[in-house]
Amino acid sequence: MATMDARTCEVCGALDGKHFPIKDATPGINFPPMHPNDRCTTVEYDPEDAADWAASGEKMPESMTYEEWKDKQGIEEESDVSDTVRRAAKSLVTGKKVVSFSALPQEVRKDFRAGLNNANPEVAKALRKVYRDVDYAISKKEGSIHLHGVFSKNTVVLGSNSSPGTIAHELFHEMDADRAISSGLTLAIAQDQVSLNMASNGDIKAYLQMKYPNAVRTKKSGDIALNNPYRGIADILNGMSGGKEWYGFGHSKKYWKTPGNLEAEAWAQFGRTYYNNDPDVKKMFEDIFPNLSTHAMMALKGLI
After folding, report:
1. What is the Cα–Cα distance from 246 to 121, expressed in whole angstroms?
2. How far apart are CA 176 and CA 150, in angstroms?
3. Which of 10, 147, 170, 229 has the highest Cβ tally under 10 A?
4. Residue 8 carries which DSSP code?
């Protein structure tokens, strides 16, 4: 990959965009340094990336100038610090190896992109705008998290069990890093909570078991929980109760005490649900959270 400015030589310019197998890399022939003071570098060629750009209906960056692509994506100027240095610094802060999306395991990339092709179109379009610009780390532990600290912002840590839907969920947190989106969902969530309490006469679990039997499982204790595909709904319900009622998935009571966390999780679980795009799950989500569904979709369309 050549530097795009007037100082780039004809040799390097001619090699820009060319693909070579790693086993055939020869410095001075098809691999930097091509000459003294060479500023060129190499990047991984990911054929799946081309397929995803094709599916999005957008042109790949290689077919545009950098300025044209930057304007279309609405991105900011890059820092003078290279991506490699930035990720190395994040690795020191997080204690995990931080990499680009293209450096994630192939199966992780493949499964996520396959999900984009089946996702709700608006959700897929929003995710395609952001997923390449985020840094990633993989943890040996279960669970995932979106980091937004001073030295770790724009980073998603994926747990050992993270599904493509979980990646979408964390990327929706990235879109909402400053809580500008989710802060507008407070009233919608409150309205849905009131309506649900009225419809269930205060017994939400019994109501879910009666109305959505395929979504519910009964535990050995006799209590009920929602099945894995409905985990986004379970998390929001858990948050609405302040963590007092467990529906199979959720967060701690302490987590829900922080103002704005319910709205942030509702937005991210909306993203997970519409990325997975399971008709039964989506119908239940829209039945239980009609105002949240409507306002979140309006916010999403404002992003794309």
Report:
1. 32
2. 16
3. 170
4. -
* DSSP state letters, 52-99: HHHHHTSPPGGGS-HHHHHHHHTPPPPPSS-HHHHHHHHHHHHSS-EE
pLDDT of residue 101: 93
Angle at 130 between CA 129 and CA 131, to 5 degrees: 115
Q: In this structure, are residues 87 and 99 in contact, taking their beta carbons and an 8 Å threshold?
A: yes
In which element (H, E) is residue 268 found?
A: helix 261-276
* Residues constituting the chain: 304
Residue 33 preceded by cis peptide, ω within 30? yes
Q: Let me know: does 255 contact 243? Beta carbons within 8 Å.
A: yes
Contact present, 165 and 275 (Cβ < 8 Å): yes
